[in-house]
Amino acid sequence: MLKGFRDFIMKGNVVDLAVAVVIGAAFGGVVDALVKHVLMPLIAALFRSPNFDSFARITINGNDVQFGVLLTAIVNFLLIASAIYFVIVLPMNAMIAHRNAKLGIKDEEPAVEPHIELLTEIRDALQNKAHQN
What we know:
Layout: H1 2-10, H2 12-47, E1 57-60, E2 63-66, H3 67-103, H4 114-132
Antiparallel strand pairs: 1-2
């Protein structure tokens, strides 16, 4: 039983996943700091409010409906997504493209799986047979 557990833990994908979770959690702090202390203060300077929580607040039978809180969450999501894209994804793609160009690696179309290719041939043959009749 312990050997099976050890084999499970030592599989590459489990270890890779654990490393990814730890790095992701650490990187979350970087993204959070960027959004909270750089981007949101810039938005606050433009709109004269640090968030949109008080925007479109209505009271119905003594209950507050706060559409601004939803708007703040949407803006935060878009800021985080754009920060990750422009700070991580875009430079990473450029580095990969530069490395591939340096190594002479060209982007190739993904190989078609054999069963998909066979099904395509069968479809084409059936279409040709139908047109001949």
